[in-house]
Write a structure and sequence with these properties.
Structural class: alpha+beta
Strand content: 15-25%
Helix content: 40-55%
Distance between the termini: 43 Å
Largest sheet: 4 strands, antiparallel
CATH architecture of the largest domain: 2-Layer Sandwich
Number of domains: 2
Oligomer: single chain
Length: about 210
Amino acid sequence: MQRNIRLDPTPELNEALAKFQDELTQPTKNHKGHFGNYADLSDITKSIKKIAPKHGLSYQQEIITDIDANGKRMSQVITYIRHTSGEVIALEGLPVDIGTTPQQMLANNTYARRGSLATAFGVVADEDDDGEQITAVKQEQLKQDEVRKAIIARLKEKLKKVPKAKIDQVFATAGLDTHANTDNGLNKLSANTASLLAGAAIYSINDAGLE
């Protein structure tokens, strides 16, 4: 079950998630299962909703269904984390068997929602997850940082071609001055700001007839 989910820079959402994870209190694992104690969906939801609104975070979950290579019906939960800035990331949970009875379907969907939500927000829901879980959010943040670095590298390349007389104008488009035009200053830019500056730089280059 592969979905092509668009990857856009989400600097404000990532910052909010980092603050959220610093303040998150892990839920008590007071339910017993075959593999030890665990936190159920209700416990996970309470832990998230206690902190998330403070940082402008909310979420929704979508269940999609498909048939795998063996002809088995599978379901998968996509957790969308949203920020008040309008930024959003979509995180895929692991596919699970839909089940053959209403009871199995309900139980399997609840299991899938629980796993996807816990992984998305960095909630440790099972005893054997302690110290081992690399959350989907962390992976997503690493991807986002790679995108940011790539945009900054392109910006640096374009700035070298901008006529000196137009450099001030380029940085002014982002409310900055040329003091930011240093290697260290450029490396600190958000993906959105770097994208804006890169666009202004390309416009200046084209307007000067250099490309």
